[in-house]
Write a structure and sequence with these properties.
Strand order of the largest sheet: 3-2-4-1-5-6
Number of domains: 2
Helix content: 40-55%
CATH class of the largest domain: Alpha Beta
Number of helices: 9
Shape: globular
Radius of gyration: 18 Å
Low-confidence stretches: none
CATH superfamily of the largest domain: Phosphoglycerate mutase-like
Mean pLDDT: 96
Length: 236
């Protein structure tokens, strides 16, 4: 059997002008992951990343702390995040005028002033929009559908598992939505169940899948063995 370890990127810069970069805490999270992998002599045969800066920066912060982890890093666009963020920003006026619940959640987010409240209300808004997107109740020509997103991620997974070799240890550095699609592949659960699991994925957490010809199975979900201090655990 071979193994794919999916890692959600470390904390990015929510509510900053440029979200797609690691926060200082995110850099620390990634460094702790690198330290853990190196101290446990976990060698990586292959590293794949999504196309976002936060994906690459997480790998770079890992390898800066643990250079022995270095191996060729391959960027795969199939491991990009979904585009629910665009629905929740570019098309929010349309959604608030169509869906009363989205309107209510958007108002709560707009009036939130303290950081914890802003994070909580944003998460509620984002999850509500994602559920509508998954159900096919919001469609925009320039925003990828849920079904196409899942197909894309599966194409990326296929490109890895079909490569020859046994006992491979592969690391994929990506986003929570991509890991959600991988969970759906392994568990064959309802889409909404997979989406719900995705909301629980910590920044910089490990989700492990075992694979061989015709098999792709979940071994561990959302583990954080590298960060013992729970105050450093973040969702966003």
């Amino acid at each position: 059997m071979s193994e794919i370890v999916f890692v959600r990127h470390a904390q990015a810069s929510l509510f900053e002008a440029d979200y797609d970069q690691l926060s200082d805490l995110g850099k620390a999270q990634a460094g702790l992951l690198g330290q853990y992998l190196a101290s446990h002599s976990i060698a990586l045969d292959e590293i794949y990343i999504g196309p976002r800066r936060r994906h690459r920066q997480t790998v770079e912060a890992m390898i800066q702390i643990a250079p022995e982890l270095a191996c060729p890093v391959v960027e795969l666009p199939q491991f990009d995040e979904h585009q629910v963020d665009r629905l929740a920003t570019d098309y929010i006026d349309q959604l608030t005028s169509t869906f009363p619940r989205v309107h209510k959640l958007h108002q709560e987010f707009r009036t939130a002033s303290q950081a914890p409240e802003r994070q909580r209300t944003f998460a509620s808004l984002f999850e509500a929009v994602a559920e509508l997107w998954l159900a096919g109740r919001v469609e925009q020509a320039d925003v990828e559908s849920w079904s196409n997103f899942v197909l894309r991620v599966n194409d990326g997974v296929d490109s890895i598992v079909r490569r020859p070799g046994r006992g491979r240890r592969v690391l994929v550095l990506t986003s929570a939505g991509t890991i959600t699609a991988a969970l759906l592949r392994a568990l064959s659960c309802p889409d909404k169940v997979a989406l719900g699991l995705g909301w629980r994925i910590w920044n910089c957490s490990l989700t492990r899948f075992a694979f061989s010809t015709g098999r792709f199975s979940l071994d561990q979900f959302n583990t954080m063995p590298h960060i013992s201090d729970h105050s450093l655990w973040t969702y966003r």
